[in-house]
Amino acid sequence: MRHPITRRIAAAAALSVPLALAAGTAPASAQPVSGPLSVRLDPLKGSDASGTATLTPTGNGGLKVSIHDTGLVPNMPHAQHIHGDTSGKHFTCPTDAADKNGDGFISIEEGLPMYGNIHISLTTKGDTSMKSALAVDRMPVADANGDLNYQRTLKPSQLPPGTLSHLTDLHIVQHGVDANGNDKYDLKGLGESTFAKSAGLKGIPEEATDGATCGMIMPVGSVDTGGASTAGVDHPFVIGAGIAGLIAAGGLLVIRRRSTTSSNR
Ligand SMILES: [Cu+2]
User: For a tag site, which of 98, 136, 167, 265 has the least CB within 10 Å?
Assistant: First the structure.
């Protein structure tokens, strides 16, 4: 598939970001997961995208992830992650109120206090850790209609400890919006990504990093009762440390520009 991405972001080093968020909280009662779990991906503020996801534990300790969206920015890669953590805190999808600067969208900085750190990067191949958070060359690309279909079976080694027993504490966030309606990420939409800029990376459109969809992971057929704990949203110290860690992580990212389009993947 030919797509007009001229920027490739590759991670340069291993990261140790989640420690701040993992500290100081007793594990909540973990429920074993036997069957598939479903996610309704709802649009975040300013986004027209929505979708569904299904997470199915495999027999050998892996996890099959299927995602289907409509309404995403066409022909653009959409960074997507499983957010939250496995220490028993209950992060949620950000509401419109998370848009602190009032630009109509939820930036990474605005969303992190509610959706938590990146737990798994849902790349199309290769590494799935936080260091691939912005590896847009390995993120799924929406088709010309803005539809996105993703499927990958994560190996047991790609699941951080506690993932399968805390799936319902986690959620999926997809990124990438089109503020100015020109069907691409550009600086004219929302300017430069403040998250990337604060990490020393210049020229990344805010449109590429703002949130598009979010959905809680829940057992099929269940309703969201609030999960194991509501502690996560009330701990600004922990949240602040998480943001600082993520920004530090961003500082390790290396950007290379592609001269033309990618020929294949
Ligand atoms: Cu994310």
Answer: 265
User: CA geometry: angle at 203 spanning 198 and 134, to 5°?
Assistant: 70
How many whole angstroms from 78 Cα to the centroid of ligand 1? 10
Q: Is residue 141 part of a domain?
A: yes
> Could you tell me the distance, in angstroms and rounded to a whole number, from the CA of residue 79 to the centre of ligand 1?
7
- Integer angstrom CA distances of residue 222 from 227, 231, 260: 11, 22, 47
Distance 257 CA to ligand 1 centre (A): 22
**Structural domain boundaries enclosing 112:** 38-257
Q: List, for residues 178-206, the tens digit of each pLDDT value.
A: 999 999 999 999 999 988 787 667 888 99
Q: Distance (Å, rounded) from C-alpha 134 to C-alpha 262? A: 17
CATH number for the domain spanning 131: value is 2.60.40.200
145-183 residue pLDDT tens? 999 999 999 999 999 999 999 999 999 999 999 999 999
Domain-embedded: residue 264: no
What's the 129 CA to ligand 1 centre distance in angstroms?
12
Identify whether 111 is part of a domain.
yes
